[in-house]
Amino acid sequence: MALPNMNPLVIDQLIVVMSSVFMDCFSADEQDVIGNFFAALGSMLSLNSSYILLQQSQNEILNQDDKTEADSQYDLLEKSIDKMKEEIEKIKNNKH
Which residues form a coiled coil (predicted)? Predict the structure, then answer.
């Protein structure tokens, strides 16, 4: 899911407007509860995004290792086939 590209100043202004609405509508204790709720929500979202990024980077590393290993196996097989062809040519040449 791609988020819209928003200017940070717009986000800051939105936060100021929402805060002023909360100040007018809620008592200090209610504002404290709401603020702590949003802080906990932000911490959980931050933790979740960090965990997902870690998993993605580990998967990319594993995929690169798999690709490198597959390439190495392919190269080894290709060299082995070339060596076999050389040996076959030597046998053919010695036969004649």
Answer: 67-94
